[in-house]
Write a structure and sequence with these properties.
The protein is an all-alpha fold. The chain is 62% helix and 0% strand.
């Protein structure tokens, strides 16, 4: 059963579809477009490598709001809770503290 202490965040990820589309385009690419497609594939492969999608979401929300989680912890928590109504205080604090630890 879900509790208020858990962070429930649904992350939609279409990277597999993007990766497949780029790979197919690369197979059919001419010399001129090949370097750009290779770079795009590298970028897609590098997105989120090894990071928790919840932390990536929180980092993105705070970056868009211009809030530094280390300098303004309370504001960071408030910003995350406003961005995702229903996010518990405990879950928001947990996310901010994880960001602080990895920064």
């Amino acid at each position: 059963m879900f509790t208020k202490k858990e962070t429930h965040l649904l992350v939609l990820n279409d990277l597999d579809e993007a990766r497949t589309a780029l790979s197919e385009a690369l197979r059919e690419a001419d010399r001129e477009t090949e370097p750009g497609l290779r770079r795009a594939l590298e970028i897609v492969d590098g997105i989120g490598a090894g990071t928790d999608p919840r932390e990536r979401w929180a980092r993105q929300v705070l970056a868009e709001a211009g809030v530094d989680a280390r300098e303004k912890e309370i504001l960071a928590i408030k910003t995350l809770r406003e961005a995702l109504p229903g996010l518990s205080l405990i879950a928001a604090v947990d996310l901010v503290r994880k960001l602080q630890a990895t920064a």
